[in-house]
From TrEMBL, chain B:
Protein name: PucR family transcriptional regulator
Top-rank taxon: Bacteria
Coiled-coil region(s): none
PANTHER family recorded: CARBOHYDRATE DIACID REGULATOR (PTHR33744), DNA-BINDING TRANSCRIPTIONAL ACTIVATOR ADER (PTHR33744:SF1)
Pfam families referenced in this protein's UniProt entry, alphabetically: HTH_30 (PF13556)
């Protein structure tokens, strides 16, 4: 009745399609139930305009909130964009009354390459800044699909260059600039580290990659395993990458500056912090990225948070694992930037 | 959580928010959340610190609205705060705010307390430590106290606890506030200090003798708490080994019809004949007829308070007599 094949062909099942998924943490599961009524797991291109609408339940952080009771000056500036492109807007938050040049975070926001602005996710960055006396520069890069690759990442690089070249005026120590971002912003931060290494303009102190979006091939075990589940599933990921890369997505000619997982050489990079959740699309590409940094002789710290969904700490900031994940990022920054 | 609360506030009028709150705690339970997650949910959704206090175990879980767990420190519980009972005795969930709970807060309190109750039942009575040899030693009055205390440490029994004797001979040691429900017939001993557990075990075994299958043939409670026996334990011990005329009369009456024992038990334990008829699913007049028959066989009137007491005692001693120590 049964037959055995000595070497089973490589089936899609082995790639995670329909595989059981790690359970969500109870607190994350409870919040996901509410989120499911507000936001589908699978985002398609037609939903991009809807998602760009302001959400009255989630108001954008104000300049006053960024200023933390007058301990930071907050300004919006236009800085030179990439060659032949418009200026780039950045939000600059500088600690008031610093005695010596301070370390800085160049922040690239998340939103799947298609939504969000310089204020997205900035509250947590300002928590770090308040705790460690950091300057923050957050980039309002142009979004896909209106601006495909390389526009968005070159906007970010232009902001990084401006920060490094104007370090003296800003009161920033140019040797202690860290790039940081979550999700698509994590992918952009990883790309900035590759570009800074290759172009030799800026020596970064570190790269803080929060569940970064790294691989346009969208074909890992976890991407298949979490299809239709949680936040930012395989369909959403395809929507984001296709907006950025068009027909090139998943093809042979994608630049590592668009999708850092495509980089063949991960040596010579600044120390990396990578975190990701066990129950999200990006799990396996993020673990692989940290692993390949180690294999290339580099420094990386990797955290995999059990039972989290993509962005778990933003949707449920009070949850136990969210508090732990955020504390781990701050601890790494403190160690990295200690004199 | 802040995000969740914001969405609740923004998306729903109060009635809708209440539904969402119920869903939140249901989801936590379904995912087998612990107590801390539940108290955190209560704090986030109520918008004030929440505190679960279990005095018997010295357990306090206090969480601020932003989800941070913080020791209560000097802040004593204010009896005026809104609260809900999680479990007896005195396990309470408090919302730390002056003034009464709002509509949504009241739902939060009620659902969070129910969720915490389920967690306590799951973690404290349904998951006894499986180490029968140590349990046997712990409740053995003849064993040296040092050996019993060592067994308690192996089992993780540190605070006050109680012994549960199960039909079939198994013995459990559970936390003082464990809730024993359903399942096997069980006798539950009083909550005592660890060194006194043999005494709790003795009373648990006595309580087990007073349980019944809860069927028509064998009516009575499946779980009996020694705490609630009062003087009955003395009576049971005094009756052991002697013939009791009222028990013999009860056995005689029971032999006259398959419904006699269930009828007498219902009458003995219901607050009125009408309630007894409802319990038995018979018409009031049917009950009257059957009772007349049963009283004749029994030899005394069970309508008067004194007759009812005599019947109750006979039923108890009848159950106890089936299993002598």
């Amino acid at each position: 009745m049964t037959t055995t094949s000595p070497s089973a062909p490589h089936t899609t099942e082995q790639r995670g399609v329909g595989a059981p998924r790690p359970p969500f943490d109870p607190e994350i599961a409870a919040v996901l139930q509410v989120l499911a009524g507000v936001m589908p797991s699978s985002l398609t291109a037609d939903l991009i305009p809807v998602l760009r609408q302001p959400n009255p339940a989630l108001p954008s952080i104000t300049d006053e909130e960024l200023g933390r009771g007058g301990t930071f000056t907050v300004s919006t500036r236009s800085v030179p964009g990439p060659a032949g492109a418009p200026d780039v807007e950045v939000i600059v938050c500088l600690p008031v009354g610093a005695a010596a040049p301070v370390a800085a975070v160049l922040h690239t926001h998340g939103g799947g390459m298609v939504i969000g602005d310089a204020r997205t996710g900035l509250a947590e960055i300002m928590d770090w800044a308040a705790e460690l006396q950091l300057a923050v520069v957050s980039v309002d890069y142009r979004l896909a699909p209106e601006t495909p690759h390389p526009g968005p990442v070159e906007d970010c690089y232009a902001a990084l260059l401006w920060t490094a070249r104007n370090a003296a005026e800003l009161g920033i120590d140019p040797d202690r600039i860290v790039v940081a971002g979550a999700s698509a912003g994590g992918g952009l931060a990883a790309a900035l580290a590759l570009m800074a290494r290759d172009r030799g303009d800026v020596a970064l102190a570190g790269q803080l990659l929060i569940y970064p979006m790294l691989d346009d091939r969208n074909d890992t075990f976890s991407a298949h395993q979490m299809a239709g589940v949680g936040v930012w599933d395989q369909v959403s990921n395809d929507t984001g990458w296709t907006a950025l890369l068009g027909a090139d997505r998943g093809g042979p000619d994608v630049s590592p500056y668009a999708a850092p997982a495509r980089a063949t050489d991960l040596s010579g990079l600044p120390p990396a912090f990578v975190d990701v959740a066990s129950t999200e699309t990006f799990r396996d590409e993020d673990i692989a990225y940290a692993t390949r940094i180690w294999q290339a002789g580099g420094i990386a710290e990797l955290h995999v948070w059990p039972g989290g969904c993509h962005g778990f700490d933003t949707f449920a900031p009070g949850a136990g694992i969210s508090q732990e994940a955020r504390a781990a990022r701050l601890r790494w920054l403190r160690r990295l930037l200690a004199p | 959580m802040n995000d969740l609360a914001l969405r609740l506030a923004a998306l729903d009028p109060e009635a809708g928010a209440a539904v969402r709150v119920v869903g939140h705690f249901d989801a936590l339970l379904e995912a087998r959340a612990g107590l801390q997650s539940i108290v955190r949910g209560a704090a986030a959704l109520a918008g004030c610190p929440a505190r679960l206090v279990d005095p018997a175990r010295g357990l306090v879980v206090r969480v601020l609205p932003d989800g941070v767990v913080e020791a209560a420190g000097e802040h004593a519980v204010d009896p005026a705060w809104p609260s809900a009972e999680v479990a007896a005795p005195g396990v309470l969930l408090w919302l730390e705010q002056s003034g009464p709970a709002g509509t949504v807060q009241a739902v939060v309190l009620e659902r969070a307390a129910a969720a915490a109750r389920s967690v306590l039942q799951r973690t404290r009575s349904h998951a006894p430590v499986e180490d029968p040899a140590s349990v046997e030693l712990l409740v053995d009055a003849a064993a040296p106290e040092a050996d019993r205390l060592a067994a308690a440490r192996r089992l993780g029994v540190t605070a006050t606890a109680r012994v549960v004797a199960l039909a079939g001979g198994r013995t459990l040691v559970v936390g003082a506030d464990a809730v024993v429900t359903g399942g096997d017939r069980a006798g539950v001993g009083p909550a005592v200090a660890v060194a006194e557990l043999p005494a709790s075990g003795e009373l648990a075994r006595l309580a087990l003798r007073l349980t019944a299958e809860g069927t028509a043939e064998d009516p009575g409670p499946r779980v009996v708490h020694a705490d609630q026996l009062g003087s009955l334990s003395l009576l049971v011990r005094a009756a052991d080994g002697r013939p009791v005329p009222d028990v013999q009369a009860l056995a005689h009456a029971a032999a006259t019809g398959p419904w006699v024992l269930a009828t007498l038990d219902a009458v003995a334990t219901s607050s009125s004949l009408r309630d007894a008829a409802r319990t038995l699913h018979v018409h009031h007049s049917t009950l009257q007829d059957r009772l007349q028959h049963a009283e004749a066989a029994l030899g005394w009137d069970v309508h008067s308070p004194a007759g009812r007491l005599r019947l109750q005692l006979a039923l108890v001693l009848h159950r106890a007599g089936r299993s002598r120590p």
